[in-house]
Write a structure and sequence with these properties.
Blueprint lengths: L7 E5 L6 E5 L4 E4 L10 E7 L2 E6 L2 E6 L8 E5 L3 E3 L5 E5 L6 E6 L4 E7 L4 E7 L2 E6 L2 E6 L5 E13 L2 E6 L4 E5 L4 E4 L7 E8 L5 E7 L22 E8 L5 E3 L4 E2 L6 E2 L5 E4 L7 E6 L5 E5 L6 E5 L2
Antiparallel strand pairs: 1-2, 1-28, 2-3, 4-5, 5-6, 6-7, 8-9, 9-10, 10-11, 12-13, 13-14, 14-15, 15-16, 16-17, 17-18, 19-20, 20-21, 21-22, 21-23, 24-25, 25-26, 26-27
Length: 310
């Protein structure tokens, strides 16, 4: 067992105040110095220059930096919010739902560019080569210069770094696509039963962390009596680390129940922290070098980690 590092995390609680600070080595939780109680369902925090873009279901909120300097405000309604490569802005869909996407700075509240992608289109990632878009399950690359769409494949983008995207394919497998070179690399199956969907790249882009079911339960029958479900028996899962260059996958030692929220990397890439919502009053910690899961217990239910704020 390794000593717990003094990480400070921002996380989402399902009870007000929604945005909280976790001091991992102290096993303590406190309200963040900015109120985000209007942003129910907070699921990601994107650091931008001078602000944080907080995505909460169909809304995008502005959290000015440093925290507590001023209050949070809603930026727009949009299911999509993807960071631009400039480190300052984000791409969001126009409120009319027409498939027009605009690049917005949360500090100046101004739009500096827009692209017409068509109704029903989602932006899954903004990459150096352009926009990775999804229409249904069809993925394509929209070149940022001539806006033509080049087919990539079928599935959903779980995470991206540079021109590399991790895609959950219709077959149930995972693949790494380099949309700059056009290459595709299948991710090895390290003996897991089913891949989960919440994934994250390490800060240097060399590794990916994602959960997987060891022994996925059988799906419920169509004619299910929801009022008389059998007692929940648990479903063992594991954390898998993927080499982003080769697709080689290795399972970390240890198990957790059901599924993991998106793993949060420390800014130096040495640690990962995540929550498993079917387990109460604890988070999971892993040293990247040791690759052994370690429980960190709390007196009360901790928030879901979203960002290393150390």
């Amino acid at each position: 067992m390794v000593s717990i590092p003094p990480l400070v995390l921002l996380g989402y609680s399902d009870r007000r105040p929604f945005l909280r600070i976790v001091r991992l080595d102290e096993r303590s939780v406190e309200p963040a110095p900015v109120n985000l109680d209007g942003a129910a369902g907070l699921d990601s925090l994107l650091i931008r220059e001078g602000w944080i873009a907080a995505r909460a279901w169909h809304e995008v909120w502005i959290v000015p930096l440093p925290l507590g300097q001023s209050g949070a405000e809603i930026l727009t309604e949009s299911f999509d919010c993807e960071p631009d490569r400039d480190g300052i802005t984000v791409w969001v869909e126009a409120a009319d739902g027409s498939g027009t996407f605009v690049r917005v700075d949360g500090i100046t509240r101004t739009a500096s560019a827009q692209v017409e992608l068509g109704a029903g289109t989602r932006i899954d990632a903004v990459v150096p080569a352009g926009f990775v878009v999804r229409r249904g399950t069809a993925l394509g690359l929209v070149d940022g210069r001539n806006f033509g769409t080049e087919p990539i494949g079928s599935g959903h983008v779980h995470a991206s770094y540079g021109n590399v995207i991790l895609v959950g394919e219709a077959s149930g497998g995972l693949a790494l696509y380099d949309v700059g070179s056009g290459s595709r690399t299948e991710v090895d199956d390290p003996g897991v039963g089913r891949w989960q969907t919440f994934a994250s790249f390490s800060p240097d882009g060399r590794s990916i962390a994602i959960g997987a079911d060891r022994d996925p339960p059988e799906p419920l029958p169509e004619q299910t009596d929801w009022a008389n479900l059998p007692p929940y028996e648990g479903s063992p899962s594991c954390l898998v680390l993927i080499d982003a260059a080769t697709g080689k996958a290795a399972v970390a030692e240890g198990s957790f129940d059901n599924f993991a929220w998106t793993p949060v990397w420390s800014s130096n890439g040495e640690w990962l922290v995540f929550g498993a919502p079917y387990e109460s009053k604890q988070l999971w910690l892993m040293s990247f070098d040791k690759r052994v899961l370690q429980r960190v217990r709390f007196r009360r239910q901790p928030p879901m980690p979203l960002l290393d704020a150390t």
